[in-house]
Design brief:
0% strand, 92 residues, 3 helices
């Protein structure tokens, strides 16, 4: 695993965390907008699709992230094993 791979994984995790915070903060904003409306219409109800879509996107990305990290971990472990195995052979 190279330094670029590690940076890429950590930046993806940070981005996922920031989008997660944004998804959590969208709901109070939506509730404030709904509270300002005099009547609850279908348009107001449909406006909930925006924070719902962002929240579901974060959940989907979070469920996919552990499998990516596991694959990277297995690859790094395999590469380390190859390096250790190559270091044990003595060549004349």
């Amino acid at each position: 695993m190279t330094d670029n791979d590690r940076r890429g994984e950590s930046s993806r995790g940070i981005a996922l965390g920031l989008v997660g915070v944004m998804a959590v903060m969208l709901w109070p904003v939506w509730l404030a907008v709904v509270a300002a409306e005099r009547t609850f219409t279908w348009t107001v109800a449909a406006s909930a699709l925006i924070p719902l879509a962002v929240s579901l996107g974060v959940i989907a990305a979070a469920l996919r992230l552990p499998s990516r990290l596991a694959h990277r971990y297995e690859h790094a472990l395999h590469a380390l094993g190859d390096r250790l195995h190559a270091g044990l052979h003595r060549h004349a």
